[in-house]
Amino acid sequence: MKLLRYGPGGREQAGMLDSAGRIRSLEGLISDINPSTIASGRLAELALREPSSLPLVEEPVRLGAPISGVGKVVAVGLNYAEHAREGGFQVPSEPIFFMKAVTAISGPNDPVIIPPGAEKVDWEVELAFVIGRTARYVREADAMAHVFGYTIINDVSERAFQLERGTQWVKGKSCDTFAPIGPWLVTADEIRAPHDLALWLEVNGHRYQSSRTADMVFRIPALLSTISRYMTLMPGDIVATGTPPGVGAGLKPPVYLRPGDVMTLGIDGLGVQRQQAVSYNPAGDVEGA
After folding, report:
1. Is the full-model pTM beyond 0.90?
2. What is the DSSP string of the chain?
3. Which fold has domain 68-279?
4. Is 244 or 287 the better-scoring residue by pLDDT?
5. Which end of the chain is more exposed for a tag (fewer CB within 10 A), N or C?
């Protein structure tokens, strides 16, 4: 299943994509796509429904993040060897992870806001997996049974905040709109080979990132098992698995986002995102869109 949420921000409704790529409403079947409906198994029951029998949603319509009420976003750093090298880092001997604030989550096509004082806003296309059942001290051999599904995350980063102000990665990763997620949450049964997916990102039509998830240093079982040693992963939690080479900071000279720039990114089977970078406006209006 390709699950999604659509509608104005804060008032999204649950939906499903049919075989023709049209949005179908799940109104009356589930209240939302969230940790509760994942843990209860109610979302899994939707697989028995024929999407074409569900009400068709009139498009175009805004897409929100495909899951609400996320408890935490755990991100993995330097999980592609060439990305580590382009940043001047050693390839890690065990997974490095950090947190992104849940307030950074936004829809897959919502604007990315360049915050006040930001000078080095960068992009990172990443495969993310969503936890389906509580994971605590999980063995690698059992890890995949805890994965509910997959989605795309753009791990937007402000490199000066991240590396030049106390080297606190969370500081450069958690600004509002720095975690566009979606367009869909694709259940694990539809992604048979998560470690062999093409992923890519373009800015203003120029392709900067192009790789495959096969190039990850640590694969999903190792990531989930390691993270679960240090914290309990709950249904609905999101784990971002790292980005391949081609980020702006790794270019010579570096390239960073400016208002008006457009990022387009995608992963096999998981859809495409598109965001425009815009200036922060304290009045709340989007500038540069």
Report:
1. yes
2. -EEEEESSTT--EEEEE-TTS-EEE-TTT-S-SSHHHHHHTHHHHGGGS-GGGSPBPPSS--EE-SS-S---EEEEES-BHHHHHHTT-PPPSS-EEEEE-GGGEE-TTSPEEE-TT---EE--EEEEEEE-S-BSS--GGGGGGGEEEEEEEE--EEHHHHHSSSS-HHHHH-STT-EEB-S-EEEGGG-S-TTS-EEEEEETTEEEEEEEGGGBSS-HHHHHHHHHHHS-B-TT-EEE----S--GGGSSS-----TT-EEEEEETTTEEEEEEEEE--TTS--B--
3. Fumarylacetoacetate hydrolase; domain 2 (3.90.850)
4. 244
5. C
